[in-house]
Amino acid sequence: xxAPIGVVGGGAWGTALAQVAAGAGHAVRLWAREADVVAxxxxxxxxxxxxxxxxxxxxxxxxxxxxxxxxxRAILIVTPAQHMRAVLxxxxxxxxxxxxxxxxxxxxxxxxxxEVARQAVPGAPIAVLSGPTFAHxxxxxxPTAVTLAAExxxxxxxxxxxxxxxxxRPYASTDVIGAEIGGAVKNVLAIACxxxxxxxxxxxxxxxxxxxxxxxxxxxGLARGARAETLAGLSGLGDLVLTSSSTSSRNFSLGRGIGxxxxxxxxxxxxxxxAEGAHTAPVLREAAAQASVDMPITEAVxxxxxxxxxxxxxxxxxxxxxxxEA
Length: 326
Ligand SMILES: NC(=O)c1ccc[n+]([C@@H]2O[C@H](COP(=O)([O-])OP(=O)(O)OC[C@H]3O[C@@H](n4cnc5c(N)ncnc54)[C@H](O)[C@@H]3O)[C@@H](O)[C@H]2O)c1
Ligand SMILES: O=P(O)(O)OC[C@H](O)CO
What we know:
The chain has 15 helices and eight strands. The chain has 326 residues and is α/β, with parallel strands linked by helices. It folds into two domains: 170 residues, 3-Layer(aba) Sandwich (Rossmann fold), CATH 3.40.50; 142 residues, N-(1-d-carboxylethyl)-l-norvaline Dehydrogenase, domain 2. The protein has an eight-stranded mixed sheet with strand order 3-2-1-4-5-6-7-8, with helices on both faces. α7 runs parallel beside α10. The longest helix is centred in the middle third of the chain and has 23 residues. The chain binds nicotinamide-adenine-dinucleotide and SN-glycerol-3-phosphate. The site of nicotinamide-adenine-dinucleotide (NAD) has 25 residues, from α1. This is Glycerol-3-phosphate dehydrogenase [NAD(P)+]. Belongs to the NAD-dependent glycerol-3-phosphate dehydrogenase family. Keywords: Cytoplasm, Lipid biosynthesis, Lipid metabolism, NAD, NADP, Nucleotide-binding, Oxidoreductase, Phospholipid biosynthesis, Phospholipid metabolism.
């Protein structure tokens, strides 16, 4: 039997990716933080806390023991972005490739996650997997495609082949920063689209916001070294289209609640699942200021998360001076 695939993170996405890896024929070791998640996966083949209703493969063994990942041939990292550095501290001496599947930018350092991983696990090759992927659809075997990026083109192709299934098609890329920026920024834009929906501003407004949001993602991405074609691909525009129009998105739903008049603080209090856009927005605003990139939609989302009134925030966005589209 070949070496197992490791997965770190027993939330919805880590569990769905464990199911994908098992479906691709691998033994899978899934490290989860919660004892109830580990017990549920091993005993009744279900992650009732984060991915209820999906029968999980017997090839998945859940654990809270870091040493169970020692012989993994590759490890998928799927914790919330702001916890990634702390979690990777447990893997410091690993040399197997790490595939980062989380979406965000580290607060404080403003580093993209692949640079966090490079610092935290210096001996491991780093790759990024990102794209339009609602966990429950992927776990149910519905089809999608993702970007799998590594600086080394051969590594990207090898890792893509390792996790591919007919219903899970990774497209290899060498644009690591591009794959990361699309996923991080779309979560913030999804909150904005949810606000438009919750406030009843109509479908034209949402389409305009998606287009101007994509312009914002592109400006920021290009300033940080991303390639335009990656931003227009699966991990950028593809994921933006998905998340900005569906209540299956935690970020869109958060925005919808804000738009309908519930304070952001109340919506964020005591949640067990993560809406990454709420954590990414202030970090993105700071990173954009540092790069001298204008991101008015991101600024509006930050204001709403900080408690600004919905109508006044939308009015401010709509009354910006007219400009050219390019
Ligand atoms: N759910 C999806 O459909 C999906 C798809 C693609 C990418 N992602 C990304 O994957 C990442 C994980 O999201 P998810 O949906 O699996 O999470 P989730 O909302 O289902 O679960 C929350 C996760 O956070 C973990 N957590 C909470 N506090 C923690 C701490 N202090 N240290 C370490 N871990 C902690 C929990 O153990 C749990 O795994 C996010 O960056 C998300 O944007 C999610
Ligand atoms: O539920 P969301 O908003 O975190 O979105 C999940 C994934 O990122 C979609 O690709």
